[in-house]
Specification:
Layout (H helix, E strand, L loop, with lengths): L1 H9 L9 H12 L4 H8 L18 H4 L4 H32 L7 H33 L26 H18 L9 H8 E5 L5 E5 L14
Antiparallel strand pairs: 1-2
Helix pairs in contact: 5-6
Length: 231
């Protein structure tokens, strides 16, 4: 009984079988990497539909790209290459979906709707994978950003054809204004050390011959006993 429950928990929820020769081709495609020449040949077979403007690799805003470490740039270029292949896969799938939408009336409506739904679901899943890839790119870049502006990597900042949105300057200004307000409403008590703590920071205590504590300044002194002014 326990063995059966364990099998049920480990069993993957699979759908109906497809044609055996198709299953073999799909498995081989998933386990085999195409040579660069073959891959480029496949990619060049399909072009982006003119009115699908978002079907392009997402670029890093130039203001940020110029500030990235060489290693970060190299890593992002690799991820852009993966993203390009993903988007190239969307192109024939989009054309196929368009063809299905134009099926003649002779095809039963129920069958037509089912086929179109499957194609649209495939488009949706691949598009979500592309969005997740963009977010992973942001997280990889985040350590290179000024800490004040790491909020640019939040999900709330929209991704367009640019990784950090079309209005980067405005977004940075909004973040700056928000940080100023936060500092004002937080209250001085969170930023100023207690007077006694400041006193302890500037003075240390030594003992005189009678064993009593004697305050002694930590500041460097000039000859004549005057304190050295910090430059």
């Amino acid at each position: 009984m326990l063995a059966r429950v364990d099998d049920e928990l480990n069993e993957e929820n699979c759908g109906p079988e497809v044609a055996e020769n198709l299953a073999k081709v799909v498995d081989k495609l998933l386990r085999t990497r195409l040579a660069d020449e073959k891959l480029k040949e496949k990619q060049n077979l399909y072009s982006r539909p003119k009115n699908c403007e978002a079907m392009v690799p997402t670029r890093v805003n130039s203001e940020i790209w110029q500030q990235l470490q060489p290693h970060t740039r190299s890593q992002d270029i690799r991820m852009q290459k993966v993203q390009n292949s993903l988007l190239k896969g969307l192109m024939p799938l989009t054309q196929l979906t368009n063809t299905l939408l134009q099926l003649p009336d002779s095809v039963p409506a129920e069958s037509r709707e089912s086929i179109v739904k499957q194609a649209l679901d495939a488009l949706t899943l691949i598009a979500q994978a592309n969005g997740e890839l963009n977010q992973r790119r942001r997280e990889m870049i985040k350590p290179d950003l000024n800490q004040q502006f790491q909020q640019l990597c939040n999900d709330q900042v929209p991704i367009t054809s640019w990784l950090f949105g079309d209005e980067l300057a405005k977004t940075c200004q909004d973040i700056t204004n928000t940080n100023r307000v936060s500092q004002k409403v937080s209250g001085p008590g969170l930023h100023r050390p207690h007077r006694q703590q400041k006193y302890r920071q500037h003075y240390r205590y030594s003992k005189n011959e009678q064993g009593k504590p004697r305050p002694q300044s930590n500041f460097p002194r000039k000859q004549g006993g005057n304190r050295k002014v910090q430059q």
